[in-house]
Amino acid sequence: MVQDLSYLSYWISESDRGQSHAINKGWEKCTGNYLAWMNSDDCYLANALRDVVKIFLECKCDFIYGTTYIGSSIREKEIIEGKGIKNFKLKALLKFFYSVDYIIPSQSVFMTKSILEQIGLLDENLHYCMDLELFIRIRLANPMFYRNPKPICFYRIHNMTKTSIHNQSMRNEAIVIAKKYSHHLQKQDWLKISNLILYSQYLSEYCSGLREKDIKSLLKTVIELPYESLTDTRFLGLIKRALFNI
């Protein structure tokens, strides 16, 4: 919470057309060189803004992202590293629907105002993955980027967060985004993601009970999608339970 309101040049509390619209309204008021946003449940750590400005000045980058602490409280936290997204590649960004290994925590993101002016604001038609779609457009603009290995923010999780309540809706929106930007990939990379989309659908159906978890059905998935299924410990666990009737 800001204790000294002299640090705020503008604030407003009013109805909006959703989260993307609300963030865009804030960005349209910004006059500085660097932009970010922070959701109400989350926070920056001490000295985060000082450290980020130092990175911008020293590295001359357009986009900063990195790791974040996550947990129900700042005292009970763990780190999200985004291991699959360390090089900020498009083919990794498009796998967000599949695993947290491909997530860029929006809390960790800072960007120059110039890059946002170049690629445009958040898509207000999106309600769960508007940040992902923005990061994809930034990547396609070939920015100078910096992955910050030091956590500078905290992402709070609880049962009432939008991502907890609407997890499947978020995943579906991420898949729509992946398909939208697939034409920017080489054919072999898109085929891999296409198989991963199909596999993730099968896995979701197994876990929800919409698909029988008998060994015959599981082996059919292995034959159809061998790499995706046999490299996923969740699927291997399903096979183990089916074999030993656990």
Task: Outline the structure in words.
46% of the residues lie in helices and 12% in strands. The strands form 2 sheets. The chain has a 4-stranded mixed sheet. A 4-stranded mixed sheet has the order 2-8-4-5, with no helix packed on it. The chain is built from 11 helices and 8 strands. The protein has helices at 19-29, 48-59, 90-93, 113-119, 130-140, 162-165, 167-180, 187-208, 215-224, 226-230, 233-244, and strands at residues 34-35, 43-44, 63-66, 68-73, 76-80, 110-112, 145-148, 153-156. The longest helix has 22 residues, at 187-208. It has 2 domains: 5-164, Spore Coat Polysaccharide Biosynthesis Protein SpsA, Chain A (Alpha-Beta Complex), CATH 3.90.550; 186-244, no CATH class. It has 246 residues and is of the alpha/beta class.
